[in-house]
From TrEMBL:
Belongs to the iron/ascorbate-dependent oxidoreductase family. InterPro entries: IPNS-like_FE2OG_OXY, IPNS-like_sf, Iron_ascorbate_oxido_reductase, Oxoglu/Fe-dep_dioxygenase_dom. The lineage of its organism: Eukaryota, Fungi, Dikarya, Ascomycota, Pezizomycotina. PROSITE patterns: FE2OG_OXY. One of its GO terms (molecular function) is metal ion binding. Residues 178-282 form the Fe2OG dioxygenase domain. Keywords: Iron, Metal-binding, Oxidoreductase. This is Fe2OG dioxygenase domain-containing protein. It holds the Pfam family 2OG-FeII_Oxy.
């Protein structure tokens, strides 16, 4: 029992000020959009990707269909869902509520079904509703993969990484990877404190696309005049936009020139919450310098992070949880019985 939670419902303030990048324009390396993209990934690690162009319409339609199919599946009994427990470094299959630490000292309040990019392309180990609506699910996943790969290519270009050092080389489409779509469901605020939210973390792959029409996501935002103070800010859901965040592998592969953004999800007071994410991750055999500067295989990094996500809150290694980015231990983020407070911090 993690303690009884009370207090007023959140007002979703402050709202994070994030850049918007227009996908159809960044495709053509429009200088203004490239500026907006490069600034966002080097200051906050989060931005909106505007997908309201004619070409992206089909993708958003598929998203709607897949979301609605998955909403129904989440209402199935737990023993039906548990038949498909996660495999392949947790990149494919079902994770039940409570298998990771939550936001308030207890366990988490979300469940997820992931479809690995390789698995869906190979039609391997899919749950019946995904099989039934295979066209929509597989097309949506290819569309997410396309969008995130194009962003990666433009980021690689924006960072001046030419042929030899291009980020495309570590993200080959013909190599196995842990890229996956995740369909997430959050239960409403559990006032007993037992199962609450999605603990703060950085994502362990390269880039993440988040689709959700609901509030709940928060980013640890660089506030203050020079961005030296960090505070939790809400990420407003916007129609026809994906929310994109930078993840650990991109941070490490670029020599720490971009920010792997710390974020978390708080449950809604009285409503279920649904979101869909795409995790673009590098080829499984990619090597990178880790938090200590030692060369490591990306799979070792995933294993360390996954073990930390699942550990009880009080035994978690917080520096791993948030990407190993914080040399000063917990980096000025202090956990309290009621949740997590962010203290002033000067180092990053
Ligand atoms: O549900 C969301 O809005 C974000 C989920 C997330 O951060 C994750 O799955 O890594
Ligand atoms: Fe995340």
């Amino acid at each position: 029992m993690a303690g009884v939670l009370s207090g007023p419902a959140p007002a979703f303030k402050p709202v994070a000020k994030l850049n918007t990048v227009v996908f159809s324009k960044v495709l053509d390396r429009d200088p203004e959009q490239m500026d907006s993209l490069m600034t966002a990934i080097q200051t906050v690690g989060f931005f909106y990707l505007d997908l309201s162009d004619k070409y992206s319409e089909g993708m958003l339609k598929n998203l709607e269909q897949c979301s609605s199919v998955m909403k129904d599946w989440f209402s199935e009994p737990i023993d039906v869902k548990s038949e498909y427990k996660t495999v392949s470094m947790a990149s494919h299959g079902y994770k039940p509520i409570g298998s990771q630490a939550g936001t308030h000292g207890g366990r988490d309040g979300w469940e997820v079904l992931k479809t690995g990019t390789l698995e869906i392309a190979s039609r391997w180990g899919l749950i019946p509703p995904v099989e039934k609506h295979y066209e929509a699910f597989s097309t949506f996943q290819r569309q997410c993969d396309y969008v995130s790969r194009m962003l990666l290519d433009r980021i690689s270009h924006g960072l001046g990484l030419g042929a030899e050092s291009s980020l495309n080389r570590t993200h080959r489409g013909d190599c196995p990877s842990k890229s996956a779509v995740a369909y997430l469901h959050y239960i409403p605020m559990d006032h007993s404190g037992e199962n609450v939210g999605h603990n703060m973390h950085t994502d362990y792959g390269t880039l993440t696309l988040v689709f959700t029409p609901q509030w709940g996501l928060q980013v640890l935002y660089p506030a203050g005049p020079r961005g030296e103070d960090r505070e939790w800010q809400w990420v407003e859901p916007r129609p026809n936009c994906a929310i994109v965040n930078v993840a650990d592998v991109l941070y490490f592969l670029t020599g720490r020139r971009v920010i792997s953004a710390v974020h978390r999800v708080l449950p809604l007071p009285d409503k279920d919450r649904y979101s869909v994410t795409y995790f673009l991750r590098p080829s499984d055999d990619t090597l990178m310098p880790d938090a200590e500067g030692n060369t490591t295989n990306v799979m070792e990094w995933y294993t360390k992070k996954n073990n930390n996500y699942e550990a009880p809150a009080h035994t978690q290694d917080k520096s791993f949880l948030i990407g190993g980015l914080y040399k000063d231990g917990f980096g000025g983020i202090e956990e309290t019985a009621a949740g997590i407070n962010v203290m002033n911090r000067t180092k990053r």
